[in-house]
Specification:
Shape: elongated
Radius of gyration: 61 Å
Distance between the termini: 161 Å
Number of strands: 14
Largest sheet: 6 strands, antiparallel
CATH architecture of one domain: Sandwich
CATH class of one domain: Mainly Beta
CATH topology of one domain: Jelly Rolls
Structural class: alpha+beta
Order of helices and strands: EEHEEEEEEEEEEEE
C-alpha cells in the first residue's frame, strides 16, 4: 500500500487539498467534512485529505496534543524575568566608559558643591567673628575720649607729649575742669575726636587747666578754638599761677549770627612765656569776665 492509502480507496480518489474547499459552516464529525473528530469514513467515500484539519494553533505530533495557543495570550511556558520571585528584573550595571559614567560624575559634582558650601559658611563665620571683635573694641572705647558731664579731669602728669620738633596741642575736653565746667556734645562743629567740648564756662570760678612740658623755655602763642553765640566774650588767662595783664579775648571776629552757636566756631591767641620743664596754663571765668563761650582745643605755636 502507498502512503495515506488504507486499502479502501485508490490514490487517485484522495484529494490532499480538500480542506481548502470546506464550507464555513462545516460541522466537525459530519460525513464528508474535514473537521476534527471526523467519523470513520464509510467505504466507497473518497478521503478528503491526508491530514485532519485542525484549528489554527493546534497541531498534533504523534499522539501528544499540544495546548492551544491563542494570539495575545501569554505562553505558559515562558515567564518574563520581572514575574519571577524577587519582584524586579535584574539589570546589569553598565561598565565605565559604556554609558555608565553619568552617575559617578553626578556624585562628584554634588560632593564638590557640598564642600564649596561648607567653605563659604566657614568664611562667613570667620568674618562675623572678626567684625564682632572689632565692634566690641569700638564699644569698649566709646565715650572714653573726654569726661562725662560734671566730671573733673585731674591728670597725674602732663597731658601733652608732642613729638620731637612739635609743640603741644590738646583737646579742651580732656583737660582738668573745675568750678562747674563740664563736657558736652550738643553743638556740632567741635574738632575733637569725640565731638566733645567744654561747656558750663559762663559762671564765675569755671576753669580749664592745662599741664604741659617743654624742652626749653621761650615765648609762645597760646591758641584757643572756641564758639560764641554771635557776641563777644573774654576770660582770665594765667601762666604758672600768674594772671596775664590782658584778658584772653574771645571776640566775634567772624561776625557770626547772634544766637547761632554752630556758626560761631573760631580761634584766638594770646602771647605767653613758658619755662623749661612743666608749666600750667589756666583759662578761667573770673570776676568781670564775659564768659558765654564754649572751648574746643588749645595749642602752642612759636611767637616768631
Amino acid at each position: 500500500m502507498t502512503a495515506g492509502n488504507n486499502g479502501a480507496d485508490t490514490p487517485e480518489n484522495d484529494d490532499p487539498f480538500a480542506y481548502l474547499y470546506r464550507s464555513e459552516g462545516g460541522q466537525d464529525g459530519a460525513p464528508g467534512s474535514a473537521g476534527d473528530g471526523a467519523a470513520t469514513r464509510q467505504p466507497g467515500v473518497p478521503r478528503t485529505s491526508y491530514n485532519q484539519v485542525r484549528a489554527v494553533g493546534q497541531r498534533q505530533y504523534g499522539q501528544q496534543a499540544q495546548q492551544q495557543v491563542t494570539y495575545g495570550q501569554q505562553n505558559a511556558s515562558y515567564a518574563a524575568p520581572e514575574t519571577l520571585p524577587g519582584g524586579e528584573r535584574t539589570r546589569t550595571t553598565p561598565a565605565p566608559g559604556h554609558g555608565g559614567g553619568h552617575e559617578p560624575r553626578r556624585r562628584n559634582g554634588l560632593l564638590i558643591g557640598a564642600v564649596a558650601v561648607v567653605a563659604v559658611v566657614c568664611i562667613g563665620i570667620g568674618v562675623a567673628m572678626l567684625t564682632n571683635n572689632a565692634g566690641d573694641k569700638k564699644s569698649d572705647n566709646a565715650g572714653k575720649p573726654g569726661p562725662t558731664a560734671g566730671d573733673t579731669v585731674k591728670p597725674d602728669k602732663p597731658t601733652s607729649k608732642p613729638k620731637p620738633g612739635e609743640l603741644p596741642k590738646e583737646e579742651a575736653a580732656s583737660l582738668r575742669l573745675d568750678g562747674g565746667a563740664t563736657t558736652a556734645k550738643d553743638i556740632e562743629g567741635a574738632r575733637s575726636a569725640s565731638g566733645s567740648y567744654v561747656g558750663g564756662f559762663n559762671q564765675v570760678g569755671a576753669k580749664v587747666k592745662w599741664t604741659v612740658d617743654l624742652p626749653d623755655n621761650g615765648d609762645f602763642r597760646l591758641y584757643v578754638r572756641y564758639s560764641i553765640p554771635g557776641e563777644d566774650a573774654n576770660a582770665t588767662l594765667s601762666v604758672n599761677g600768674k594772671p596775664n595783664s590782658q584778658p584772653l579775648g574771645l571776640k566775634n571776629f567772624i561776625h557770626s549770627p547772634q544766637g547761632d552757636w554752630k556758626k560761631g566756631w573760631q580761634s584766638t591767641w594770646a602771647p605767653i612765656t613758658l619755662n623749661k620743664g612743666t608749666n600750667t596754663v589756666e583759662i578761667a571765668c573770673g570776676q568781670g569776665n564775659q564768659c558765654n563761650a564754649i572751648l574746643d582745643q588749645v595749642w602752642l605755636a612759636n611767637a616768631n
